[in-house]
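sanity check both lines:
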Amino acid sequence: MRTLPLLSALVAFSALACGQELRRGIVDADAVVVGRQIGKTEHDENLTLHRLQVVLDVRGAAGNTAITVLDWPKLGLHQRPMLRQSRLYCLQDASAIAARLNLPSASGPYFKMVAWPGSNPLVGAEPQNDPAVRFAQLLAASESGASPTDTASALATMALQPDPTLRLEATKYLTERGDLRSKLVGLQWNTLLARATGEVEDVAYKTALAELCAEQKLDGVFDALIVSLGQVSDPEYARTVGRIGRALHGEQSATKLGERLRGAGKPEDRAVLLLALGATNTQTALDALQRMDKKDAAVEAALKEHRSSRAKEAVGTKGK
């Protein structure tokens, strides 16, 4: 899979920032099930054994009506089974640990939960219709040999659905999987780009779509994303647009933003465009910002975003 290094870093940062990593939990898991806690035993002061009823096996637990999940409650913050709740569980094999502790085989198989945030979502009354379960089933089918074209198309459809968690996970997974992205056709990309430019409420989702379209290097994607600056004033989106511009167009990205900046009428539009300009971290952007009034708070924020030593010096000398 070929990726743009900067965009890959952006994806990793945004995933960490919003704490949404269900897809990573599913991929890393040895078993994925919908389970409900039906028992809890204190093995000793350091280890708790949670007995889970298997409501639905997505993969890895076929033939088991119940499993045991190991939990170390004194360790740092981590996920653990919740009483009387049906949840999606992304589990890793813990048979070696169980054997070392001489745990009874009759209570197996033994697992531990993966640590990825968001990988233990609550599941509705009808698991087969739950968005998180459907997403997990799609990834499981892909790993089992389902057509990459069918998988990519299903992910593209999920990326446009109303459920905020499902669409965000599907979008990020496509961004990370160049082999699947290559299976999408022009009409699908046009729809995804249109949604990226049109979304104004869910900024995390809009940012993920922007990264997806940029990772594919769609024609005109940077120009389309610039249009949203002002409609969406979130600083993180502005930073993302600036960094995408640098990755795709280099110095020319600052020129494009400068053209848009000259037509900005509202102070808030100007501020977000300046922030995106600084985030390009280009020489062209730095030269333009240094010609502006450094006492202006929006210019100062843009210089701070630039991150170069010259930009830092410019901010340090403002007002002198």
Q: What stands out?
A: Residues 235-249 form the longest helix (15 residues). The two ends are 50 Å apart (CA to CA). The beta strands are 31-44, 47-59, 66-71, 86-93, 110-113. Confidence is low (pLDDT under 50) at residues 1-6, 8-18.
